[in-house]
Amino acid sequence: MHLIVDAHEDLAHNIQSFGRDYTRPVAETRRIEHGSAVVEHTGNTLFGFPEYQQGKITLIFATLFASPRRYQNDAWVKFSYNNTDEAHRLYRNQIDIYRRLIEEHPDKFDIIRTAPDLSLHLSKWQDTEDKHPRPTGMVLLMEGAEGIRSPEELEEWWDLGLRIIGPAWVGTRYCGGWHEPGPLTNEGRELLVAMAEYNFILDISHMDEEAALEALDIYKGALIASHSNAAALLPNSGTNRHLSDRMIRGIIERDGVIGIALFNAFLQTGWKKSDGREPITLAHVIAQIDHICQLAGDAYHAGIGSDFDGGFGLESVPRGIDTIADLQKLAPLLAEQGYTESDIAAILGKNFINHLNKNLPSL
Ligand SMILES: [Zn+2]
């Protein structure tokens, strides 16, 4: 089995909002939440520590995420924000959530801040015997930069372990985003200049095309798209959430990696939860991966950014996926498409690992 890197998981948001305990097996969380408002709101979980082990999920990009109040008008309204100070509190609290998780379960989760941290972490996964549990490493990613009150605050966020920043979710004061198109603002340009001084990795996902294309031109640091799919395979989607081929080519030219999301509505235009899981298969995911590889002319720019538990659950993922461990099922399907073992290792994990190795600080 290959080591898997999942470049987008909203763990802290789910712990903060729904009290999910990701040290439990998936089946136990599903049993505890069965029939509850949590499942109605966000679906059945796909994550649990035993499943991380089983699927060799060695590394995840663990997000800090909160939504603006205008997109959250139900019982979970207290976990959304109305202004920058409220956003800051929610995002900052999620750092504490990850710290607590690691303090209480150092055998299960680990935080990766530097390239040496990453090497040490990967060494734990090197032996081929699966006797001992190995922690899943977490690189912290902020989705929607409204939690950063000003660029001066970046030093503090860096010291807290944050390494990847996506300026947008919907539109933010930094840039146009999902549902709310627009360019980078002047504040957004200032943020990018300040981010580059630390070599924060820029996450293009959720940025509107206009903002993303400018960022691809001007950002001096490294970049990725943590969880985005190719718009070319999603005709008439009516959303700006996907990547145009122009954006994909830009990310490839900048040596970035794109994590393909396994959300059914991002794999087939028009899919709705009421359609059921049947029509969407892992072949849709393979097609997305293949599209990136065809544009790149190699297998070094595609990865996985499942976005599981990112506002949707089991009900909204491709047939064949029951938990995170089933990401391993992508390997034989890639082989059927003609991908070599080393290409498959690259796509499932090595591409993001190499990118981090190059771009995390050396101490
Ligand atoms: Zn997202």
Structural account:
The structure is a single chain. The protein is built from 13 helices and 13 strands. Helix 9 (209-218) links the parallel strand 10 and strand 11. It starts with a strand and ends with a helix. It has helices spanning 11-18, 26-33, 37-42, 49-54, 84-104, 115-124, 154-159, 186-198, 209-218, 245-253, 282-296, 330-336, 341-359, and strands at residues 4-9, 57-65, 67-68, 80-81, 109-111, 136-143, 162-166, 175-177, 180-184, 201-203, 223-224, 258-260, 302-304. The protein has one domain: Metal-dependent hydrolases (TIM Barrel). It is 38% helix and 15% strand. The model has no long low-confidence stretch (mean pLDDT 96). Strands 1, 2, 5, 6, 7, 10 and 11 form a seven-stranded parallel β-sheet that branches. Strands 3-4 form a two-stranded parallel ribbon. It is an alpha/beta fold and 363 residues long. The chain binds zinc ion.
